[in-house]
Structure to design on (289 residues):
């Protein structure tokens, strides 16, 4: 583990908000354990091990039923820890993998059987070396045949340049963490408007209203992030997902308490109907149709 790496909260509080039956944590990770599932040589950070048993324990503690486990950059294109977690999930987890263009159809087929339903394209420069867009497009056309979708991770200043590429992708696209808006600019800023108008114009784009802990400037009551997530939930109620982002790699400001994160949900999805779409209907439609 890197010397400045903050391990996940050892003892989160129980949330006050009771999530609806069948709720899905649609963005979380498993890391290692490194002695079984070593981190990738090309990684940009070395996390604290965060094994599947701990993830499933947290899922139960918070009241969730299912997980969507997203491959993170520290495991590179080796999805073994993810696949192992899927195999031990009793069909209660789905996966988002990071794959090489050289992956065989047989390997993709095995991943599909294990519960992988998407690939992730990461454009965040501090996390990965750039992949040529033609390579991503090649992967996109192959996984589209399996009925998978594409999860993309980028930061707000990169959206404009990425739009032509994103428009070429042949599947549903899920944007991680609201496209990482600059919270200091407020919801009315043109960069967040670019994101909402991009969603309005392209009905295949979904987003995760996750990660107030990463985006906040003010700190862990997350007041400053709530208007962004609430805007997206109300404007695109059928295309939003929510996740804990456990174990929160690369947090520097504070260690998030997942009970507090769950208690943000009724502030961004104020009605029972919106909460059900966000936590149950939308992720089930995408990952357990
Ligand atoms: C997240 C966010 C981060 C890390 C990764 O793949 C990754 O390593 O996604 C981050 O550092 O912002 O979703 O876990």
């Amino acid at each position: 583990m890197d010397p400045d790496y903050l391990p996940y909260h050892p003892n989160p509080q129980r949330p006050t908000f009771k999530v609806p039956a069948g709720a899905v944590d649609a963005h979380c990770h498993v890391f290692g354990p490194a002695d079984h599932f070593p981190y990738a040589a090309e990684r940009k950070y070395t996390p604290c091990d965060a094994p599947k048993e701990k993830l499933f324990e947290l899922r139960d503690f918070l009241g969730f039923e299912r997980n969507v486990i997203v491959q993170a950059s520290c495991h590179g294109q080796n999805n073994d820890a993810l696949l192992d977690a899927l195999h031990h999930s009793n069909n209660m987890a789905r996966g988002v993998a990071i794959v090489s263009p050289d992956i065989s159809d047989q390997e993709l087929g095995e991943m599909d059987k294990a519960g992988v339903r998407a690939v992730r394209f990461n454009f965040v420069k501090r996390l990965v070396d750039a992949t040529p867009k033609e390579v991503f497009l090649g992967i996109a056309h192959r996984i589209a045949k399996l009925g998978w979708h594409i999860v993309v991770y980028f930061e707000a200043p990169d959206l404009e340049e990425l739009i032509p590429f994103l428009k070429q992708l042949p599947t549903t696209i899920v944007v991680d963490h609201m496209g990482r808006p600059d919270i200091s600019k407020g919801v009315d800023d043109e960069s967040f408007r670019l994101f909402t108008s991009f969603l309005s114009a392209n009905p295949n784009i979904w987003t995760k209203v996750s990660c107030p802990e990463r985006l906040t400037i003010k700190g862990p009551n997350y007041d400053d992030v709530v208007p962004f997530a609430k805007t997206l939930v109300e404007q695109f109620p059928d295309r939003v997902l929510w996740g804990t982002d456990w174990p929160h790699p690369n947090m520097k400001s504070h260690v998030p308490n997942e009970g507090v994160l769950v208690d943000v949900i009724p502030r961004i999805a104020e009605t029972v109907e919106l909460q059900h779409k966000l936590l149950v209907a939308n992720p089930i439609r995408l990952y357990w149709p």
In short: Residues 32 and 49 are 5 Å apart (CA to CA). The radius of gyration is 18 Å. Strands lie at 24-28, 66-70, 93-97, 116-122, 149-153, 173-175, 205-208, 240-241. The chain has eleven helices and eight strands.
